[in-house]
Amino acid sequence: MDNVIQSRKTLLLIWISLSTPLSVQSRCTTRPVIFNFGDSNSDTGGLLAGLGLPIDPPNGRSFFHGESTGRLCDGRLIIDFLCESLGCGHFLSPYLDSVGSDFTNGVNFGIIGSSILPEFVPFNLNVQVMQFLQFKSRSMRFAMRGLGTHYDENVFRKALYSFDIGQNDLSNAFDDHLSYSQVVERIPSILNELQKAIQTIYDQGGVNFWIHNTGPLGCLPQKLSLQSKAAAGGFDRYGCLATLNAAAKAFNDGLSSLCDKMRSKLSNATIVYTDIFTIKYDLIINSIRYGFGNPLTACCGYGGLPYNYNINVTCGHVGSRACPVGSRYVSWDGVHYSEAANAIVASKILSTRYSKPQLKLDFFCNAT
Predict the structure, then answer these.
(1) Which residues belong to the signal peptide in this entry (predicted)?
(2) Is 336 a catalytic residue?
């Protein structure tokens, strides 16, 4: 009975977080401009704008009423909730979107499928950084001429630079049938490239960085449906692939150490490292407490239990079906989290308990 009561309370909290903007938690008066770099976990329409690839319903059904916003989710992403928490007037527009873009809140360079390495592959991290450099250069020229609402040097200095990328580097390596040791051997070079990106932005005057680590790769229904027990090294007690999660932890340990090193190296820089892995893994292992059922099953997909994921019939394609109540699922499409799960993740991020140092997001309001 206690579990039932707790589950109902959690469902109520999820409903409140989904229907009420998180901006009530913010004390912002002057909101920071945000420049985001990432992959599908934070893409608000970049791939749709850049390549014209359709991202069809039921994506977007929970919040955007079926409109194709380019998000791989039934509603809002973590970055959307974080923007809401600051009281932003609208979500981040993709850099590549030529219609309806509004960059007053910042710019989203993140694009579905992006990784940190290799370099010069659209739209991997160093390409996103080059796009930022181009955006900054042109904005400065327009600002000097007094044209439009483009940013000046002061705005770029006070801006918040967020990073949510690295999952695809690990995912792609395992998809290429590399062993755990081979994947781990790649991590230093991956992190070195991320360090170069941060250093480049710092050299351009940026001093505020918000960095997410990567989530529990071995708990994604996609990976569970494709990896055999023998190849993956077995399952943990919650049904996730142990080796893939171990690789994610190795990456995160290295990323945490990198952030520590860069704090001491980059004078006047504020670098917040946020432990997304622990937050997301908690949704899996304590799914009942959060009101979720079958935490390793995709809401939208094909194949039924246990994972409802088929690489040939993914969400939005002919033959796939979506569950009636997405708020009961952690996973939306086997790779990306549902809006309900994203709302919980965002609320935990905003609590500061999972960040190092434990700074609130609105610390970056009125940055000097």
Answers:
(1) 1-26
(2) yes
